[in-house]
Amino acid sequence: MSLHDSKAIVHFAGNDLFIGLTPSKHAVTLDSDHTRGAAPSPMELLLIALGSCTAIDVIGILQKKREDVKEYRVEVHG
Q: What domains, with CATH codes, occur in the chain?
């Protein structure tokens, strides 16, 4: 699948919960009621997505340079 073919589908599941479906058939529950915390909020998942994209790129570059990465952390605020 190319980057241009990617799409996500989000279904309302009731009670302020949503189910996000990825092209790779993974399901993620989202909770729009931030006081309940039954699942990550959309903002939390967006922050994780941004941080993980950055981390994947940086680690990939370091590995191509034959760096032995033992630990790496990205902290994203939003």
A: 1-40 (2.20.25), 41-78 (no CATH)
